[in-house]
């Protein structure tokens, strides 16, 4: 079997994407017959377009980065005829595990080289504000996104200030509820987690109704371990509307990237617009 050429995109700021990890990745590629023909370091360098990839004869792009970079690359390559290999270069790597289960990176690369990783277009979340391939967090609790950024790039005093602001926003901000179809409590929740699957979008509601639960939730959010906080599974749907109880705008994290929506917003399950390589057939 001849060498397969790939175009690597990585982000040096991602959670588990240091030079040692890149070295192990390149060694694993060499061991299984993959060649890194080109490399883009995002965001320092522009992402390759479909036209650039086709001109270079590249059929596979590998993304070794976190959710935010993966989101940007997949949006950029929507409609491309090649395939994208998502690798665990971030903190939680939710999309990678959805595509490859608990497989180690070297084993995933071997599966690609040997043709055992097949093309797949998993269900993803579409909104008027963009797509989410790993998941969506919505509601006043998304103020904790600022805390996470402070943990990564600022000192302890800045982090403490962001944490105080996030606590106030989560406790006293306008709650969010699920409409069309209605799910859960009408008085709403401080944080909703939306997770795409091939058969629908799963909706988990996180709450902070007692001091103990709130402290548990605060710790889980600050550590980025959103699923560890106290929550209820509200259900699954192919489309629904999220709205604040005041019918105004609210905060959203699309694959960890913050944005503000103007009012009630529809979330829809759609197929990914570019082929992703996977050993897990569906979910």
UniProtKB/TrEMBL annotation:
PROSITE patterns in the record: DAGK
Matching Gene3D superfamilies: Probable inorganic polyphosphate/atp-NAD kinase, domain 1 (3.40.50.10330)
A Pfam family of this chain: DAGK_cat
Domain DAGKc: start-end pairs: 1-129
Organism: Aurantiacibacter luteus
One function term, GO molecular function aspect: kinase activity
InterPro entries with a match to the protein in the record: ATP-NAD_kinase_N, Diacylglycerol_kinase_cat_dom, NAD/diacylglycerol_kinase_sf
Name of the protein: DAGKc domain-containing protein
């Amino acid at each position: 079997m001849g060498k397969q050429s790939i175009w690597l995109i990585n982000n040096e700021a991602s959670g588990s994407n240091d030079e040692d990890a890149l070295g192990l990745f390149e060694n694993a590629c060499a061991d299984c017959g993959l060649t890194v023909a080109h490399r883009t370091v995002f965001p320092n360098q522009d992402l390759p377009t479909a036209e650039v990839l086709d001109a270079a004869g590249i059929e596979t792009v590998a993304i070794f980065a976190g959710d935010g970079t993966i989101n940007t690359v997949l949006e950029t390559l929507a409609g491309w005829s090649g395939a994208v290999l998502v690798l665990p270069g971030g903190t939680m790597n939710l999309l990678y595990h959805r595509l490859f289960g608990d497989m180690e990176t070297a084993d995933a690369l071997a599966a690609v080289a040997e043709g055992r990783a097949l093309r797949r277009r998993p269900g993803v979340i579409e909104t008027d504000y963009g797509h989410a391939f790993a998941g969506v967090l919505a509601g006043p609790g998304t103020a904790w996104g600022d805390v996470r950024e402070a943990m990564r790039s600022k000192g302890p005093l800045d982090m403490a200030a962001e944490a105080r602001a996030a606590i106030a926003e989560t406790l006293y901000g306008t709650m969010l509820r699920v409409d069309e179809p209605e799910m859960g409590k009408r008085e709403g929740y401080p944080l909703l987690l939306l997770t795409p699957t091939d058969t629908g979008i799963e909706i988990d509601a996180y709450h902070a109704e007692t001091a103990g639960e709130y402290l548990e939730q605060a710790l889980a959010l600050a550590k980025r371990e959103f699923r560890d906080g106290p929550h209820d599974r509200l259900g699954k749907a192919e489309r629904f509307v999220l709205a604040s109880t005041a019918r105004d705008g609210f905060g959203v994290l699309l694959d960890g990237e913050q944005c503000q929506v103007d009012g009630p917003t529809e979330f829809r399950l759609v197929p990914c617009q570019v082929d992703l390589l996977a050993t897990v057939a569906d979910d």
